[in-house]
Design goal:
Elements: H1 2-23
Organism: Macaca mulatta (Rhesus macaque)
Pfam family, one: KRAB
Domain KRAB: 8-24
């Protein structure tokens, strides 16, 4: 359960980072 949540968080962060870079 914890591992699954961690994976989701990592993907969420990666998506947020990509969007920020694109906006830049």
């Amino acid at each position: 359960m914890m591992q699954a949540q961690e994976s989701l968080t990592l993907e969420d962060v990666a998506v947020d980072f990509t969007w920020e870079e694109w906006q830049l």
